[in-house]
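Deliverable D5.2: sample structural annotation.
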Amino acid sequence: VQLQASGGGLVHPGGSLRLSCAASGSNLDTLHIGWVRQAPGKEREGVSCFSNLGNKYYADAVKGRFTISRDNAKNTVYLEMNGLKPDDTAVYYCLADRGLCEIMPHYYSDLDKYLEAWGRGTLVTVSS
């Protein structure tokens, strides 16, 4: 499985961005796909996840502002980010694994190596 993330950029506080994660490979319908982020000097943290059964996870810090969606026909997961804050500044990584949504609340960097797939990060900068 390969993942390609895109959509990062520079926005002002209160602005919006949409991240995309395009997946390719086999057995994609068995995988959870989600996003983690890593801010400068901080540990990686789970942001949001969409399971293969349609269940969604959001970190408390993004609830009500971020929306995750999945287009199975395009094998793409989107993260719509509204009301962006400077604290949202981070590199965002797209990940895939059969149990990803279950571990998302407790995610940390060492888990990367156990995952089915992860993509290159995309930088989101929120600044005035």
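Annotation notes: The longest strand covers residues 17-24. Helices lie at 100-103.
The annotation will be released with the project's public dataset once the embargo ends.
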